[in-house]
Design goal:
This protein is an alpha/beta fold. It has 10 helices and 7 strands.
Length: 204
């Protein structure tokens, strides 16, 4: 998938957050749903739908949308408790973070994320890693979500560099393919050690 050669002068590392730098325990939707008297599959659908809407528009009116569509299945207060429970299991990929800190002088590191408004504060207050990033490209602020090519075009235009001078890393294959469609070098993140070894080989 990725096409890394000695000819590539890498100036930017574009890093997904969830599933790459920020990890979390696997959610057992059936167990979580039983706590709130709702089927796990339906709970997952509600959480994913609301997150997707928020990630696409920083001005999205979550509570109004939720109450119009889901309040008869799960109260908005319980919805917020579910979200809090999911986020409570998140943690930093320390092995990757250490590598990034060691190599941050070699390129600009940017967070590239489908996320809700205010993710910058979350990175600083919860994980204390906001200072790692030269830029934070957040879908809610941009108005497009990965893997939409327009998201990646926005990033390229903002950075003002040729796309083949940027490596994009994501655990979602469709997002990687979207990045490659506009000329970015894509790496499908599966394993931290494998990724670090690949990058170390490139940087020799």
């Amino acid at each position: 998938m990725e096409n890394l050669t000695e000819k590539n002068e890498i100036k930017h590392l574009l890093l997904d957050l969830g599933g790459v730098l920020i990890l979390r325990q696997t959610t057992d939707w059936n167990v979580l749903g039983s706590r709130f008297n709702i089927e796990g599959a339906q709970l997952k659908l509600i959480i994913q739908d609301c997150f997707t809407k928020q990630a696409a528009d920083k001005n999205f009116q979550l509570e109004q949308y939720y109450n119009d569509k889901y309040k008869n299945q799960l109260s908005f207060e319980d919805y917020k408790e579910v979200v809090k429970s999911i986020h409570s299991s998140e943690y930093v990929n320390t092995l990757l973070l250490e590598w990034l800190i060691q190599n941050k002088q070699k390129f600009t590191i940017s967070a590239v994320t489908n996320n809700t408004a205010g993710v910058e504060s979350l990175l600083n207050e919860k994980f204390n890693i906001n200072g790692l990033f030269g830029n934070i490209f957040n879908s809610a602020e941009i108005g497009f979500t990965k893997p939409d090519p327009n998201f990646f075009k926005y990033v390229i235009n903002f950075l003002k560099v040729p796309p083949d001078e940027c490596i994009f890393v994501d655990d979602n294959l469709q997002n990687v393919l979207g990045a490659e469609s506009v000329g970015l070098i894509g790496i499908h993140f599966i394993d931290t050690v494998e990724f670090i070894n690949k990058m170390n080989t490139l940087l020799i």
